[in-house]
Amino acid sequence: MIVIGAGIVGSMIARELSRFKGRFALLEKEPATGFGVSKGNVSMLHSPLMFPSGPLRRRLAYKAAERYRKLARDLDVVFREVDEIFVVFDQAQLERLEAARAGAEKDGLSAGHEMIGPEKLKELEPHVSPKAIGALYGQGVGGIYAPEWTFALTENAVQNGLNLHLNASVIEIRKTGELDFLVTTPERSYQTRFIVNAAGLFVDEVARMVGDEDIRLLLTKGTMAILDKSASHLCRNMVYGTVGKDHSQLITPTAHGNLLIGLGTFTTPEDKADTSVTREALKEVVQMARGLVPAVSEKDVITAFAGIRSDNTKAAAPGDFFIGHSEHAPGVIHAAIGSPGLTAAPAIAEHIVKMLGDAGLLLEEKKDFQEKRCGWARFETSSQEERQALIAANSRYGHMVCRCEKVTEAEIQEALARGADTMDAVKHLTRAGMGRCQGGFCGIGVLNHLAQHKGQPPSRITKKGEGSYQVIESRRGRPGKSEEALGRLEKGRP
Question: Is the CB of residue 323 less than 8 Å from the CB of residue 203?
Fold first, then answer.
């Protein structure tokens, strides 16, 4: 059985399948998991209040924090719990939020939200705009870092027998028998009886490979920015201003302690790969954040990025997730997921595995399933005593590579040993290069470790896969400037 796509949804499905006996494979076109749509979102859980339409997505998003809390313990990854606050600036907005709260309660999807006045709001969020007249407040949501989670999910699945294939873009799916398919990638082909199409932005293209032409995606693009940790005191919870189909106003702590602001006015990209950030979009995002928390400043922005999400427009499930069997290829399940796919991912995985069982996949649980996955010690979040113990056990914990995020050589080496083989993969697993300098100082150090680990010259090390080389060779065969700098670093000279 094959799962296509190793974003947060595909990785959750793969891990859930690894509980059972059988041969399972996960195919991902990128050089690492979580490098697609999962990387370009706010990575925060949302309550069903955010989605007044779509019964399936509302049901699967319900009580997501409970599932994530358990998974975080099992997989040894970060899950940061925060509360959810929808700030009210006028009477009309108050009435809409109260209606959403009452509707969720009527549908049995209440998360215990309540309307609060400006005094309570000020207590919860001291820096919020004085123009706010109240808020809708709910407890029990949280945030993750999606690439870190997809890595942990797939690593645990591999522990349990899953075959993970990276750089494996599906180029053809061909029916070879009444119940069999041949899935072809540039490197090899796979024979399978069942396929789960969790290809994110490309779920429509994979669907067409099996003859399903009616899966259409509505793409929307939003811009986000990350603030330096020096501004983290400005917001304690996930705070929304306006939320609509055309724009969203948000400021929230990330799983690792920065503040994220976004998403501005949504646009419709013509190209699925267009994650560029314009100056105008960034300016708008900062202005919208200042409407919530006036103390937010553009000078606190250390990086900005854009994400693209895909909403299903299939007639069978308008305004909702479409998770269903192929109309032309029995054995294929399409997962056309939009927002809040990350929130609902654990429940989506359970839902799809049940569908596979109902379709004939034998689901016999393993007696030796390894539920726990062990991560590695993080220097930044360790106490002074813990740091001393780490250094005593492994001297590489005493060699700092990324000073902004306090990432040590030991952590870099651990990520490399577990499969990180690009600059971005190391960054997403360790946070080296994600601080104030954005890799300006630690980048060469990470490059050096990668080159040594892979036994390749620095000129062959990539940022995020083939073609994204980080060092330029001179045409005369002599090292370029980046290589000269690397050489000085290796010799201990600035």
Answer: no
Residues near 389 by beta carbon (within 8 Å), at least 6 away in sequence: none
- What pLDDT is stored for residue 491 in this prediction? 45
Q: Measuring CA to CA, which residue among 310, 281, 289 is closest to residue 203? A: 310
Cα–Cα dist 277/224, whole Å: 9
Q: Which domains, from first to last, does the chain contain?
A: 1-79+144-216+313-375 (3.50.50.60), 80-142+218-309 (3.30.9.10), 384-490 (1.10.10.1100)
Encoded tokens for 16: 């859930």
pLDDT for the residue numbered 488: 46
CA gap 270, 113 in Å, rounded: 38
Confidence class of residue 476 from pLDDT cuts 50, 70 and 90? low
Angle at 227 between CA 223 and CA 230, to 5 degrees: 170
Position 481 pLDDT exceeds 90? no
Give the number of other Cβ atoms within 10 Å of residue 448's Cβ. 18
Contact, 19 vs 369, CB < 8 A?
yes
Q: What is the mean pLDDT of residues 231-254?
A: 86
CA–CA separation, 110 vs 101, rounded Å? Answer: 7
Residue 124 in tokens: 């919860």
Spot the catalytic one: 46, 256, 351, 428.
Answer: 46
Mean pLDDT, to the nearest integer, of 182-203? 96
- The rounded distance, in Å, linking the Cα atoms of 259 and 253 is 4
Our answer to whether residue 328 is catalytic in this structure is no
Which three-class secondary structure state does DSSP give residue 69?
A: helix
Q: Note the pLDDT of residue 474.
A: 56
Q: Which two tokens stand for residue 327?
A: 């109309």
CA dihedral 335, 337, 340, 344 (to 10 degrees): 0
What is the residue whose two structure tokens read 């870099």? 412
HSE-CB at 41 with a 13 A cutoff on CA atoms is 27
Quote the pLDDT of residue 492: 42
What is the band of 2 on the pLDDT scale with cuts at 50, 70, 90?
very high
Question: Phi, psi at residue 239, to the nearest 5°?
Answer: -115, 120
Distance CA 297, CA 336 (A): 37
Give residue 490's pLDDT.
46
29, 53 Cβ separation under 8 angstroms: no
**pLDDT, tens only, 117-128:** 999 999 999 999
